[in-house]
Amino acid sequence: MIVTRRRMIEAGGGFFLAALLTRPALPAGAVVDIEMHGRDDGAHVWFDPIGIHVEPGQTIRWTNRDPGNSHTVTAYHPDILDRPLRIPANAKPWDSDYLMPGQSFSVTLTMPGVYDYYCVPHEHAGMVGRIVVGSPPASVETVAKPDQTLTQLPDIAVRGFPPVDEIVAKGVVRKA
Ligand SMILES: [Cu+2]
Q1: Does residue 75 contact residue 87 with C-beta atoms inside 8 Å?
Q2: What is the CATH number of the domain that holds 148?
Q3: The predicted structure's pLDDT at residue 175
Q4: Rounded to whole angstroms, how far apart are CA atoms 25 and 173?
């Protein structure tokens, strides 16, 4: 939070800061939906929205709306496929396994922080998403120390995550 505030002040002062701090996250309680989409030819696949800001305790539901592909929603975590930790250290990781068209998978996120996730078969096509729960963390950098036993992210995935500040400011971020 300290890092974020300092950056905001440098970027333009109190008005923007106030707007940032008073912007509500998505309403708590109701399930928040994220859809999985793809073009018919499979060349483009994405989560929609790609970034959301929610309160702790929010349930998120992913649904595969791509008629031509199966997708997963999988947290970046060493316990799942030996990937770097990109969710809060105390949070429980998840893996939906393959969702056929029309199928859904839900998780409830209680720990504040930044959660990065991906689609196992389409990570190399940049199919990733980010959820910010509660107040942004002190550091927006969630990449764990490089560990040779873990499979690092491809560049297209790293570039795919919306900035935490943008997610908090807008509440919902859709892929450009
Ligand atoms: Cu996919």
Answers
A1: yes
A2: 2.60.40.420
A3: 87
A4: 12
Is residue 119 among the annotated active site residues?
yes
Structural domain of 153? 25-173
* Active-site position among 8, 53, 71, 127: 127
What's the total number of domains in the chain? 1
Alpha-carbon Rg for the chain, nearest whole angstrom, is: 16
Active site residue 71: no
Which of 44, 77, 100, 111 is flagged as catalytic? 77
| Position 12 in a domain | no
> Could you say which residues of the chain have pLDDT below 70?
1-29, 42, 137-147
Structure tokens at 86: 């990109």
CA 80 to ligand 1 centroid distance, Å: 17
* pLDDT score recorded for residue 76: 97
Residue 127 is a catalytic residue: yes
The β-bridge partners of 52 are 131, 172
Q: 8 an active-site residue?
A: no
Q: What is the pLDDT of residue 6?
A: 40
